[in-house]
Amino acid sequence: MFKKLFSKPIFRRLFLGGGGAVENAFQNAPITLASPIFNVGMGLSPVLIGIAVALPRIWEILLDPWIGVKSDRFRSRWGKRTPFIFWGTLISALLFALIWWVPVGWSLFAKGVWLIISLLLFYTAYSFFAVPYAALTIEQTEEGPDRVGVMVIRTAFATLSGIALNWLYWLAQRDCFENAVVGMRWVGLGFGLLIGLFGLLPLLVLQRSRDPVPSAVEPKQEASSFKPLLKMPILQCLIIALLGIMVSFTLVGQLGFYTFAYFGCAGDLKLAALVGAQKATLTSILGILACPVVSWLSKKMGKQNTLQGLLLLGGIGSVCTWWTITPVNPYYSVSSDLCVMIGLVGFWSLMPAFLGDVSDLYQAKTGESCQGQLAAIYGVAVKIGASSALLLTGYVLIFCDFPKEITPESMREPLRSMRLLYAAIPGIGIAIAMGALHYFYKIYHKEINKKES
């Protein structure tokens, strides 16, 4: 009965896409909550926090390619991806909870060491899930509506987890907890275990899903080097687009918290947590509703035109935060948040589908399987962008004259620079991504025409 049920296309796509909740939640939760908990709650330096969240992403740059190759070549009675996804999900769920259990009474230095080590362990376990899962969504889908459908559902689950993520800080501030630091211990434990369940969903259909469509060229062997892939101009364009988005949005991510809390909400942290969670919930729900629209638009207009239009909307929304984040009414910024959300929903929904185009071209040329390595390259590009930006986030705050003692009065002057950077830098990153994607399709059509001739 269950075999027949899970074999239906809608359930196969839903379960394959369910892992997107883990991708978004575990990748972004520590970064999002590090400043409110470790800076505002414990007093750690923002520079130290920036280094702590950047180091694991640098480590992943070395780790992900190894995992990608191993998951491509791994053979077991449960399949080549299953052991990675299963253990990666369970261990990362437990380690996520551990991040927030800093022993009481430790010095600031010891707390900083705890943060660095716990994040290194957590993101190591997360990589053992993320890379094989990304490869799985490529190899078990076909080019066209099937692949776009899974990627859109994957993004919808990621956006859904974002709703829960944005309520964590508010939940940690409830009166039943002594303070937000104590509250985050229990909230983190519950959230980690809940999100871990979504990581197991793809395994329910992994053995029942149809096999990957065979290449026109008989596979010779698993690819043994990343160099042939990295030499492909079409893949280089995708990497530039990823870096443009990741660097720009990550670089000013912390600025968003301080700008909204100390300018939009005049330093009222509880109000900022509540309104921020409400706004994020609304925009996330609308983002989820936009997912099938993205799929429909990509069928009518093509992936390229759809993504370029959505990115343009996101860029406009980013620039408009200069006006919409205002103490007149903190809810005004929901309009710009929604534009940015829709732009990013389009980007993260369609980018993996572009990666599938690269995989199909490479396999047609060489007969070699490369999904795991492509997923690793994709992840490495994301992490290079994130880690390089995270290393600089603390210094960006220093550039803005971030005060040692945070009060609404001491934040008045720094907020001018923060607001300007928060509005402008993502717009620049989006422009870079749009240019890179334009060249991607020029090269892609050239390769297709060459293949057909």
Q: What descriptors fit this protein?
A:
Growth Hormone, Chain: A, mainly alpha, 453 residues, globular
Name the helix and strand elements from N-terminus to C-terminus, one letter apiece: HHHHHHHHHHHHHHHHHH
Q: How would the global form be characterised?
A: globular
Write down the CATH class. Mainly Alpha
Biggest sheet, in brief?
A: none
Structural class: mainly alpha
Low-pLDDT residue intervals, each spanning 5 or more residues: 207-224
Q: How many strand elements?
A: 0
Output the radius of gyration: 22 Å
First-residue to last-residue Cα separation:
47 Å
Percent range of helical residues: over 70%
Please count the helical segments: 18
Strand content: under 5%
Q: How does this model look, in words?
A:
The chain has 18 helices and no strands. By secondary structure, it is mostly helical. The chain has one domain: Up-down Bundle (Growth Hormone, Chain: A), CATH 1.20.1250. Helix 4 runs parallel beside helix 6, helix 4 runs antiparallel to helix 17 and helix 14 packs antiparallel against helix 15. It is globular. The termini are far apart. About 4% of the residues have low confidence.
Outline the fold blueprint.
Layout (H helix, E strand, L loop, with lengths): L1 H5 L2 H9 L2 H22 L4 H28 L8 H18 L8 H32 L5 H21 L2 H5 L7 H20 L1 H6 L20 H4 L2 H19 L1 H12 L4 H33 L1 H22 L9 H33 L4 H29 L12 H41 L1
Helix pairs in contact: 2-7, 3-6, 3-7, 3-9, 4-6, 4-17, 5-6, 5-9, 6-17, 7-14, 7-16, 12-17, 12-18, 13-14, 13-18, 14-15, 14-16, 15-16, 15-18, 16-17
